[in-house]
Amino acid sequence: MVEENLSNSPTGDTADLPPKDIEEIPPNTKVGSGDGVPIADVIPTATADQRKTRDIHDEPHPHFKWHAEVRVDGHDVFQGIVKDISMKGLNLVLDHNLQNSKLVKLHIHIPPADISSPHHVLEVSGKITSTVFDSAEEAFRSSISFIQFTLDSDQTYLQSLLS
Question: By the 8 A CB rule, do 90 and 82 touch?
């Protein structure tokens, strides 16, 4: 036989006590901390690398599909496609994961405006800032910050293309 609980004990569905007054919370205070810690003290700040990455994307960076060769450690050469580029760096899609590499040498092949002209090849040294797998491209996407152009004329040429 099953016994029913017929007592009038509170179940939590109804309030037995009148509601408390809501206490005013000082502005810029982390709610629920109980110790009144200002929000500025608990919000993480960007690291230097995160600020650099943000700086790269603050510039205009048009999207292209330029061929690029990446030389890693002075001997391994990988083929990739430039997805977007600025004066500070680029995003490169390639089949090889460059996550463990730090510095690279890039040869970026820029197609000519006139078909009868040869490709212009920019030569630049760079530092890999991040590498992720891009499922849309089914390849790795590496963000590379430019360190130094081999020729000053290459830097000027890229600037003229981006403006």
Answer: yes
